[in-house]
């Protein structure tokens, strides 16, 4: 029997060092691992091409089936029937779970999936398992992603007849830097080297920039700067960007994103069809899993039909005497999901606001992702952007992976004689990065939507007399309170000379370099002495490990506010 | 061969002797700053803060009078435009330079240098592309305090630009210190052999004092 194509050395092994090595001459390929679908594309010398599997599919399902000894992914195998998903052996939606702790609402929402997602609710990683021969076999999101990354890689290697190592991956805007380390981990497990991690809508923006550049070459476009809104909604995430494009340069003005997507539409609809479904299925017996999966498949079919029809009849026998028989209208579907759609609209509004762009200045509105076929999504994007026409000429399901493949070619230093690769994306930070200060508040040092690479700093001071130590706790996110943000790491500053509170100046500098590596530098300055009194600390982040959710709470229990910092208040004039 | 002035065992010593070590540090820094000031507006930085890149430790540090004189370079100089330009021309100049200095389009050996330049370009562009901050900057330029100017969020939380200069200079010296220490990659020392020698020459008595008290052996 063939060896499994992937090997897992150790889940705790760090892979950070690999990222910084210089680009290899080979052309990096683009990969889009979606919550429900994945695809792979490469620059073939004149254009981007998606690689098809043996069944001639360019876009494949993102799931892994655990059977017998060797797990098989959706790239190489096909479910003999959609209902094979009912057995509890198929694991999917891992992009929604990767790098999340078991107190995360997104993890709790995943308990309605037809396999085991178990939580103990203390901030450790959730327990995920597939039902194999009537036993729960545990796995991790990283392992599942690695399995289909291996299959994608094998498929590309067979067709391109060369080894594949370097990849550009698309990622959701709302992913924390900790989640990115988990994606890199999955890639390392699959023997892939991550050249770039690109927020999905920025990959689409790059594709758009190339199209604009080509139309200039063909004297079709004006060549002047074009402002575009890109709205990308898939099964797991909804992301928005505003970009300014001119001369092949795509400047990202702002990003916004959230973990909402088709999966939420589906779950709300399942609850609507069967209000007590969650309690019915909570026991995870064989029959419950089957019922849960039957309801899921039927609901998904209904949602698909509602994109073209105004009402649909659902008749499904869930077994155990449970039946759903209901006529559902498109209005009902939209009403049940009103909050999700409102959130989508607010992401666009926020992104436009952050980009300081007026709706009248928009040249194009681009709608991509699996949810772009839903009429309500189209309407809300059109009405929020006050545009009747949406941009044509971009395939909604292939846009992100094509952009990633373009970035792969550009980053690998490939030249195109026709100038089709004279492209550049100027990225911004999707989330703010800062530290805990002023009590339990998050004080950003690099705000979100800061152009990268970046370096910013801020001065803090002690809160107690003779405070000799300070705890630097680094978070990423947008919440005002620290607990609403992602913990990235923590360290102590020691040896602050005895002095009244408010006197020492603790300078915290954050640096994001060209490879998007984050470093935090902290130095202590005392009045009357222009030089640092203790060695400057330099820490590369994130430093937290899996299951870090309880760390902040534990720190708080251990130290209370004794090692706090606060921002330096403006002096009274 | 590691003799750290702040090695764990010597840490308390270091703190006790922090007073006596100040003159040494200052003389070191005075020497270092003349070639190593971390000013974001310098056009050419001959070092890198990245401990990872290795360029800092391997490459010789070039002291250049040029970088000192260029510390007076304004945002307009950075973008290569006169102060009278229109917003449109500012954008054009910026886009032109971005294509030259963005790390993604830089050859590998110039990435560190160009990253620094790009960050300064970005700061210049963000300042000058907003009419309000541009007016403020022009005002600073007229009064000669522009070096301390920054378009970004004020470093003191929710505070104006007034107090920015002083702490910025201090912070720069901190970074200078960090860089100087980072140069010594192979030992856990925070000071290279060469700098220890120089130090001895400069202030023999205090250096000896440190030697006795904090396990430094030359």
Automatic annotation (TrEMBL), chain A:
<dbReference type="GO" id="GO:0042026">
    <property type="term" value="P:protein refolding"/>
</dbReference>
<keyword id="KW-0547">Nucleotide-binding</keyword>
<dbReference type="InterPro" id="IPR029047">
    <property type="entry name" value="HSP70_peptide-bd_sf"/>
</dbReference>
<feature type="region of interest" description="Disordered">
    <location>
        <begin position="1"/>
        <end position="22"/>
    </location>
</feature>
<comment type="similarity">
    <text>Belongs to the heat shock protein 70 family.</text>
</comment>
<dbReference type="GO" id="GO:0005737">
    <property type="term" value="C:cytoplasm"/>
</dbReference>
<protein>
    <recommendedName>
        <fullName>Heat shock 70 kDa protein 8</fullName>
    </recommendedName>
</protein>
<dbReference type="GO" id="GO:0031072">
    <property type="term" value="F:heat shock protein binding"/>
</dbReference>
<dbReference type="GO" id="GO:0140662">
    <property type="term" value="F:ATP-dependent protein folding chaperone"/>
</dbReference>
<dbReference type="GO" id="GO:0016887">
    <property type="term" value="F:ATP hydrolysis activity"/>
</dbReference>
<dbReference type="InterPro" id="IPR043129">
    <property type="entry name" value="ATPase_NBD"/>
</dbReference>
<dbReference type="GO" id="GO:0005524">
    <property type="term" value="F:ATP binding"/>
</dbReference>
<keyword id="KW-0067">ATP-binding</keyword>
<dbReference type="Pfam" id="PF00012">
    <property type="entry name" value="HSP70"/>
</dbReference>
<dbReference type="InterPro" id="IPR013126">
    <property type="entry name" value="Hsp_70_fam"/>
</dbReference>
<dbReference type="GO" id="GO:0044183">
    <property type="term" value="F:protein folding chaperone"/>
</dbReference>
TrEMBL record, chain B:
<protein>
    <recommendedName>
        <fullName>J domain-containing protein</fullName>
    </recommendedName>
</protein>
<dbReference type="GO" id="GO:0009507">
    <property type="term" value="C:chloroplast"/>
</dbReference>
<dbReference type="InterPro" id="IPR018253">
    <property type="entry name" value="DnaJ_domain_CS"/>
</dbReference>
<dbReference type="InterPro" id="IPR036869">
    <property type="entry name" value="J_dom_sf"/>
</dbReference>
<feature type="domain" description="J">
    <location>
        <begin position="74"/>
        <end position="141"/>
    </location>
</feature>
<feature type="region of interest" description="Disordered">
    <location>
        <begin position="181"/>
        <end position="218"/>
    </location>
</feature>
<feature type="compositionally biased region" description="Basic and acidic residues">
    <location>
        <begin position="205"/>
        <end position="218"/>
    </location>
</feature>
<feature type="compositionally biased region" description="Basic and acidic residues">
    <location>
        <begin position="181"/>
        <end position="191"/>
    </location>
</feature>
<dbReference type="InterPro" id="IPR053232">
    <property type="entry name" value="DnaJ_C/III_chloroplastic"/>
</dbReference>
<dbReference type="InterPro" id="IPR001623">
    <property type="entry name" value="DnaJ_domain"/>
</dbReference>
<dbReference type="Pfam" id="PF00226">
    <property type="entry name" value="DnaJ"/>
</dbReference>
């Amino acid at each position: 029997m063939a060896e499994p194509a992937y090997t897992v050395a150790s889940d705790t092994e760090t892979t950070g060092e690999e990222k910084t090595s210089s680009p290899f001459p080979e052309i990096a390929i683009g990969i889009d691992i979606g919550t429900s679908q994945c695809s792979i594309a490469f620059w073939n010398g004149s254009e981007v091409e998606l690689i098809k599997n043996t069944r001639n599919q360019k876009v494949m399902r993102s799931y892994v089936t655990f059977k017998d000894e060797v797990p098989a992914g959706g790239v190489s195998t096909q479910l003999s029937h959609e209902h094979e998903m009912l057995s509890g052996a198929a694991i999917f939606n891992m992009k929604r779970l990767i790098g999340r702790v078991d107190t995360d609402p997104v993890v709790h929402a995943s308990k309605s999936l037809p396999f085991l997602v178990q939580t103990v609710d203390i901030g450790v990683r959730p327990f995920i398992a597939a039902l194999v021969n009537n036993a729960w076999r545990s796995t991790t999101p990283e392992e599942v992603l690695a399995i289909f990354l291996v299959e994608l890689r094998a498929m590309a290697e067979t067709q391109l007849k060369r080894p594949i190592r370097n990849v550009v991956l698309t990622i959701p805007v709302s992913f924390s830097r900790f989640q990115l380390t988990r994606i890199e981990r999955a890639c390392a497990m699959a023997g892939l080297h991550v050249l770039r991690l690109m927020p999905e809508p920025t990959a689409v923006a790059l594709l758009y920039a190339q199209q604009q550049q080509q139309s200039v070459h063909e004297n079709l476009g004006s060549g002047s700067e074009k402002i575009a809104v890109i709205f990308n909604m898939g099964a797991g995430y909804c992301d928005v960007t505003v970009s300014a494009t001119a001369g092949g340069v795509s400047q990202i003005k702002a990003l916004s994103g959230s973990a909402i997507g088709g999966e939420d539409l589906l779950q709300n609809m399942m609850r609507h069809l069967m209000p007590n479904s969650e309690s019915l299925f909570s026991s995870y017996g064989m029959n419950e899993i089957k019922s849960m999966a039957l309801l899921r498949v039927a609901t998904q079919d209904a949602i698909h039909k509602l994109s073209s029809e105004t009402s649909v009849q659902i008749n499904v026998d869930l077994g155990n005497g449970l039946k759903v028989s209901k006529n559902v209208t498109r209005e009902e579907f939209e009403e049940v999901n009103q909050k999700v759609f409102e959130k989508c609209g607010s992401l666009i509004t926020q992104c436009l606001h952050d980009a300081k762009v007026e709706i009248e200045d928009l040249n194009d509105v681009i709608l991509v992702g699996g949810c772009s076929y839903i009429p309500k999504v189209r309407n809300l994007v059109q009405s929020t952007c006050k545009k009747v026409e949406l941009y044509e000429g971009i395939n909604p399901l292939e846009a992100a992976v094509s952009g990633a493949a373009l970035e792969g070619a550009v980053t690998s230093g490939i030249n195109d004689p026709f100038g089709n690769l004279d492209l550049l994306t100027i990225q911004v930070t999707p989330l703010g990065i800062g530290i805990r200060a002023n009590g339990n508040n998050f004080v950003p040092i690099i705000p979100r939507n800061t152009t990268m690479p970046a370096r910013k700093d801020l001065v803090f001071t002690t809160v107690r007399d003779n405070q000799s130590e300070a705890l630097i706790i680094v978070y990423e996110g947008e919440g005002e309170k620290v607990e609403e943000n992602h913990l990235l790491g923590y360290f102590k500053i020691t040896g602050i000379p005895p002095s009244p509170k408010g006197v020492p100046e603790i300078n915290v500098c954050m640096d994001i370099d060209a490879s998007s590596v984050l470093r935090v530098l902290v130095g202590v300055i005392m009045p009357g002495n222009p030089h640092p009194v203790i060695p400057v600390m330099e820490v590369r982040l994130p430093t937290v490990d899996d299951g870090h959710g309880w760390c902040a709470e534990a720190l708080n229990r251990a130290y209370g506010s004794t090692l706090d910092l606060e921002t330096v208040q403006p002096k009274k004039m | 061969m590691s003799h750290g002035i702040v090695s764990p065992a010597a840490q308390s010593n270091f703190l006790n002797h922090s007073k006596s070590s100040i003159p040494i540090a200052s003389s070191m820094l005075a020497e270092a700053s003349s070639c190593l000031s971390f000013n974001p507006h310098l056009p050419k930085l001959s070092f890198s803060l990245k401990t990872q890149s290795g360029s800092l430790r391997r490459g010789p540090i070039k002291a250049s009078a040029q970088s000192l004189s260029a510390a007076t370079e304004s945002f307009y100089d950075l973008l290569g435009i006169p102060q009278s330009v229109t917003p449109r021309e500012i954008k054009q100049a910026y886009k032109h330079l971005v294509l030259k200095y963005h790390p993604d389009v830089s050859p590998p050996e110039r990435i560190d240098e160009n990253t620094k330049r790009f960050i300064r370009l970005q700061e210049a562009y963000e300042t000058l592309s907003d009419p309000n901050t541009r007016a403020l900057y022009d005002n600073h330029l007229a009064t000669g305090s522009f070096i301390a100017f920054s378009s970004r969020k004020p470093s003191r939380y929710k505070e104006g630009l007034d107090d920015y200069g002083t702490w910025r200079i201090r912070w720069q010296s901190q970074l200078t210190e960090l860089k100087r220490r980072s140069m010594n990659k192979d030992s856990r020392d925070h000071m290279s052999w060469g700098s220890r020698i120089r130090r001895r020459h400069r202030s023999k008595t205090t250096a000896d004092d440190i030697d006795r008290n904090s396990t430094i052996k030359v």
